[in-house]
Amino acid sequence: MKSFYRGKSLLFGAVALLLVLLLGFWSISKFIDYEKRRDLNSWQLTLGVMADQKAHEIDSWLERQFAVLQELARNGSLQLYTQQLRRSQTQHPSVESAEISYLRNLILATAERHGFTDRGEPASSRIGANIMAQADNSLALIANGDSIITGTVGISKPTPGLRQKILEVLQRGETSLLDVYVNANNRPVVAFLVPVFALQKQSNALKPIAVLCGTKDVSQALYPLLRSRHAATKTDECYLIRKRGDLVQYLSPLADGTLPLKKSLAANAPDLAAGVALQSPGWFGNGKDYAGNDVLFTSRKIAGSPWILVQKIHAREALAGSRSHQRFLLLSLSLVLLLAASLLIAFWWYGGMLESQRVAADLQAKTELLASRTALLAAVSDNIHDFIFILNQELHFIFANRSLADRLSIPAEDMKNKNLASAFGPASARILERLCQKSLKEGSLSQPEISLEMNGEHLVFNAAFIPVAQPESDRQVLLISLHDITLLHEMQQKRERLRRQLVAALMRAIDLHDPYSANHSANTAFFASAIGRSMNLEPDALETVETAANLCNLGKLSIPKQVLTKTGALTAEEQELMRKEPEFARELLGQIDFDGPVCEAVAQKYECLDGSGYPDGLSAEQVIFPARILAVANAFVAMISPRAYRDRFAVADALDQLLKQAGSKYDRQVVAALFHVVENETNWSQWDERQQKFIN
Predict the structure, then answer these.
(1) How far, in Å, are 468, 470, 489 from residue 371 at the CA level?
(2) Among 355, 416, 425, which Cα is nearest to 391's?
(3) Whole-angstrom Cα distance, residue 668 to residue 673?
């Protein structure tokens, strides 16, 4: 029987090892595929950047040529003289008219400046419009399809293809490009055609009167843009193609020495990179180039032309490092996998031999660990200053640490099975029983702050009530921790009293500095706090509003007293000084670390929702909510309080003023809350008595 189980164990181990090996080789294959895709993605990005750069340069080159001709076509003199020449026929053909001379000089100057003449020609060359000459770069003014008015040296009668394009431009009135073709000098050229319109409109239909035809030798101007600028690669190449029927025609010179327009291949040839580029411009992939080499390529469409730019590199060069890296990964990871499998076998045999010894050692170690942790727990619980105890569901003590027992003056061994009342007293027991029942009922942690009386002393604790399930039954026990924060609580109260005293001192200083606004801060704080309570603000937000209201006039301390108490009209300088009050307040409060946005609320008390306020012109959500409450309370108190330059407003009039500006300057909800406070929460008889007291 033992040999049977041993054989079954061996079979299971062999199957598991085989699965591990299969999974390992599958993971290696996936990782190598990932590395290959990463390298391809890198080349996709590299070729894409190269193609985009060259496509942009070609687009820019085409746009510059058309821009030159369009600027010339819009020349008023050229339009006028061309129109006059079209209307009249010279009576002495052998004598050149002044108009033709001017047009020729204008065209020659433009052509020489922008490369529409063959290099090396003298600028003073002169030809007649009827002389047939051969030039690779030329600029001519043509009418009626083939009637050359004038042009640069070497212009010849338009070819049939060029004549057809000229007639199309004359018919449609739009610029056009005559695709690359071989001229009489066996040079690849491209023609740019731009219509010339009459200076004065002759009829409702605006038709061209002539065409500016500029030809350029692309081997001099265009093909250099395709040259590789990367010395790090040897086989990258960029060329232009176009579709001719079912063929792909290569427009630019190729790396194998093929001249422009001398190679054409079937567009549907299998895996032909140029064929894919014609069908899907922008596509990245691998395929065959014109010489049958495996390449990585991408393509771009050249705007305004039938050209497709192809950027490629031999796959052998591009992926040489990647393939070497993949072979290294395959070999090294396979060796690691086999080594790991060997180690697994060794560990399996070794583990089986030592299994019984390990189990015994584990049991011994767990016993010792349990004993040490029990001792550690006892040491921690007996020496920690927090009060820790455990209650059962009947709220009787199961455990209490020594700190609690000493505080209650009860021996630790006598705490077990006591109830809360016998340990803490009736008053504290009622507080604890209520929280214990709630925690047991909800089955969740609760951490309230509670005040208890212990041995005649009132203490404040951060308490934690933690229900703990007992594994041996479905009953729960309650772990309770009491952390004494009495000193911290007293310090916080002292700090709060000090804060309020400092704020009150600042308010008195403000009232003394501006007696006409005496008690303004206190009144603003009264209404701002009432509005906040009416709107159910959180305690922290309510404290922020109250503090900001008490300090809202702090900026007045930076304004001279004679300006604040002046009864006459303020000068422009004094008005500007008064408008800086929020900025003065922000400077005074900016370095104080308040619990809430007090400084921001004070600085924004004159900001309006429609952006018409000051000092920063904030609007809508840029104005924080405490500042909206402060703005309404401040405005209301200011209106119902007398000033050095006016009497106070009636309460109803002040509310009407705020209501008119609700939604534009003031928050509509805040104004509504103020209405509620004024109508339901303000004793106006006491208010008037208090105001009169301050006035007197």
Answers:
(1) 22, 20, 40
(2) 416
(3) 9
- Is residue 393 a contact partner of residue 443, using CB atoms and an 8 Å limit? no
Cβ partners under 8 Å of residue 454, min gap 6: 407, 408, 424, 428
Tell me if domain 386-484 and domain 491-695 are identical in fold: no
Q: What are phi and psi of 92, to 5 degrees?
A: -130, 80
- Residue 214 has phi, psi (to 5 degrees) of -110, 125
> Backbone phi, then psi, for 687, in 5-degree steps?
-60, -45
Instruction: For residue 453, give the DSSP letter.
Output: E
With tokens 């052509």, the residue in question is 111
SS3 for 206? coil
Please write the tens of the pLDDT for every residue from 183-227: 888 899 999 999 999 887 655 567 898 999 999 999 888 999 988
Task: Output the CA angle 379-384-385, nearest 5 degrees.
Answer: 155
Written in H, E and C, the secondary structure of 107-134 is HHHHHHHHCCCCCCCCCCCCCCCCCCCC
Under a CB-based contact definition with an 8 Å cutoff, are residues 388 and 404 in contact? yes
- Taking the CB of residue 71, how many other CB atoms lie within 10 A of it? 12
- The pLDDT of 425-446, averaged and rounded, is 81
* Token digits of residue 345: 């076998």
Strand order in the sheet with 208-217: 147-151, 138-143, 208-217, 188-197, 176-182
Distance CA 625, CA 213 (A): 69
3-state secondary structure of 459: strand
How many whole angstroms separate alpha carbon 511 and alpha carbon 505? 10
Joined together, the tokens standing for residue 158 give: 């338009």
Q: Is the distance from CB of 235 to CB of 315 less than 8 angstroms?
A: no
Closest CA to 594 of 550, 649, 658, 655: 550
Highest CATH level, class, for 74-221: alpha beta
Domains of the chain, by residue range, sit at: 74-221, 386-484, 491-695
pTM tops 0.70, yes or no: no
Element (H, E) at 10: helix 2-73
**Most confident option among 266-275, 315-324, 681-690:** 266-275
Helix residue ranges, H only, 244-319: 273-279, 315-318
* Cα(634)–Cα(655) distance, integer angstroms: 13
| DSSP summary character for residue 326 | H
Specify whether domain 491-695 bears CATH 3.40.1180.10.
no
CA 406 and chain centroid, separation: 60
SS3 category, 251? coil
- State in Å, rounded, how far the first CA of the chain is from the last one: 112
| Mean model confidence pLDDT for the chain | 81
386-484 folds as: Beta-Lactamase (3.30.450)
C-alpha to C-alpha distance for 529 and 588, rounded to whole angstroms:
23
Q: How far is CA 362 from CA 89, 299, 355, 356, in A?
A: 118, 67, 10, 10
- What would the mean pLDDT of 72-86 be, rounded to a whole number? 87
Instruction: Supply 418's token pair.
Output: 């006591």
> How large is the average pLDDT for residues 140-167?
87
Q: How far apart are CA 136 and CA 216, in angstroms?
A: 6
364-377 residue pLDDT tens: 777 777 666 666 66
Phi, psi of 177 (to 5 degrees): -125, 125
